[in-house]
From TrEMBL:
<protein>
    <recommendedName>
        <fullName>Tyr recombinase domain-containing protein</fullName>
    </recommendedName>
</protein>
<dbReference type="InterPro" id="IPR013762">
    <property type="entry name" value="Integrase-like_cat_sf"/>
</dbReference>
<dbReference type="InterPro" id="IPR011010">
    <property type="entry name" value="DNA_brk_join_enz"/>
</dbReference>
<keyword id="KW-0233">DNA recombination</keyword>
<dbReference type="GO" id="GO:0015074">
    <property type="term" value="P:DNA integration"/>
</dbReference>
<dbReference type="Pfam" id="PF00589">
    <property type="entry name" value="Phage_integrase"/>
</dbReference>
<feature type="domain" description="Tyr recombinase">
    <location>
        <begin position="1"/>
        <end position="92"/>
    </location>
</feature>
<dbReference type="GO" id="GO:0006310">
    <property type="term" value="P:DNA recombination"/>
</dbReference>
<dbReference type="GO" id="GO:0003677">
    <property type="term" value="F:DNA binding"/>
</dbReference>
<dbReference type="InterPro" id="IPR002104">
    <property type="entry name" value="Integrase_catalytic"/>
</dbReference>
Amino acid sequence: MRKMIYKYAKKAGIQEEVTKYYRDDNGNKLDKSYQEKKVTPHTLRHTYATDLLRECHNLEKVRKALGHADISITQIYIHLIVLNAILRNHFLANLLILL
């Protein structure tokens, strides 16, 4: 599955490798780095869950679709959607000020 995702992401021109840094137990960036692909099975799963929640507005449906045992794990998607809306509204407000 992973190889297929990498293949089609590359064909679509959306695959790139990014440099990530290891972190210590306190979250401080270490000198040692590694390459990571930008489009992964996890990013597709995350995108699917976010889009599903935006469309159906039903957290329980998203929980079942992802196979989460606990609804608290699924609730992260609510925070992401709210944050996205705040950032979008902030951008639009700043754009209106410039006009």
